[in-house]
Design brief:
131 residues, mainly beta, 6-stranded antiparallel sheet, 8 strands, 11% helix, elongated
Amino acid sequence: MPLATIDITKCIQDHQDIGSNNDLSVMRSRIFFSMSINGKKIEDLYVDISQPYGTHYASELIEVGRPVGYDGPFAHQAFSNEIEAYYRKLVGEGASVISIGGGVDIRMSNNTFVVPYSFKIEIDNNSAGGW
């Protein structure tokens, strides 16, 4: 299986509400990246991520959409795992950019994090896009 290299350039946090009352918690952000696969580099890609309204940020999964600007074979689960890990390294308990402890109510919006990150995932060319 071919390897794809994902090079993240930045994340724009549209908004995030983290509260002691999970009913009010929500997050929407966009992560920008390029991808190299089979010797070809695809630029200007992004993916929208979200925390479903009313879920607990620290313990529940972040939803990762389909990359915009690429429609070829893909390994969405592996990609999602890496994207979620990247975002949690930026924002959350013990994060490197915005560290948030428990029992707080925080509202953030329009933050841009320029924190490069790269990872590789295996792509199955025989799958139906990995979706």
